[in-house]
Amino acid sequence: MATYEDIKQGYILAVSELTEIYRRQNAFYHATEHLTLLANALYGEGTAPAKRWFRRWRKRCLADQIDHVIAQAQAALPQRGQARRLAQKQIAYLRRNRSRMLYQTFRQAGYFIGSGVVEAGCKTVVGQRLKQSGMRWSIRGADHLLTVRAALLSRWFDAFWQAPKSVLNVTTAAA
């Protein structure tokens, strides 16, 4: 049987891996905001061409083709002026974050490409339990409670609950 420490370390590792994956990912909605700004800078805010290019680039982003978007935008840059500066700022953003915008790859690996799932998870695990009327928590107390709550919501509570007892029994038997 797994010990409490085994379960805790497994949970920490799983959360760490998912956190790292989502940290390395740029939420798709956030990326589309930059695509909108880029299309508006190049083709005029709210114009039919801006909307058309946005839709094309959005599809390209979903297909891991951000370099293609950058190349098309670069080719459409005006010679000078405010529109050029605004577009260059968005192109620089896309270049800087291209490795975090592999949405097709992320989806094929089974990951969500938006931040909504993570935010909803935080609300469910943390908010619904720790933010009830009149509650106050120490960091240590909140940490312990959230460990139990995560175990409950992750459906590994039974193993979690049994583990400390087995550790306690071994310690008591040795004493």
| Tally of domains | 2
Number of helices: 9
Helix/sheet category: mainly alpha
Portion in beta strands: under 5%
Indicate the low-confidence ranges by residue numbers: 166-175
| Overall spatial form | elongated
Please report the total strand number as a whole number. 0
Summarize the helix and strand pattern as letters.
HHHHHHHHH
**Separation of the first and last Cα atoms:** 21 Å
* Helix content class: over 70%
> Nearest-angstrom radius of gyration?
24 Å
Main sheet overview: none
Mean pLDDT: 78
Description:
The protein has nine helices and no strands. The protein has 175 residues and is mainly α. The chain folds into two domains: 4-22 and 115-170, no CATH class; 28-108, no CATH class. Helix 1 (4-23) packs across helix 9 (157-174) and helix 2 runs antiparallel to helix 5 (82-97).
Protein traits:
175 residues; disordered C terminus; 75% helix; mainly alpha; 9 helices; 2 domains
Quick summary:
With 175 residues, this protein is an all-alpha fold.
Write the layout of secondary structure elements.
Elements lengths: L3 H20 L4 H16 L4 H15 L3 H10 L6 H16 L5 H6 L7 H15 L8 H15 L3 H18 L1
Helix pairs in contact: 1-9, 2-3, 2-5, 4-5, 7-8
